[in-house]
Amino acid sequence: QVRLEESGGGLAQPGQSLRLSCVGSGFNLSYWAIGWFRQAPGKEREKISCITKTDGTTYYIDSVKGRFTTSRDNVRKTAYLQMNALKYEDTAVYYCARNTDCTGAYPFGSWGRGTQVTVSN
Question: Contacts by 37-43 with C-beta closer than 8 Å and gap 24+?
Answer without folding.
Answer: 37/94, 37/95, 37/96, 37/97, 37/108, 38/90, 38/92, 38/93, 38/94, 38/95, 38/117, 39/92, 39/93, 39/95, 39/114, 40/89, 40/91, 40/92, 41/91, 41/92, 43/92
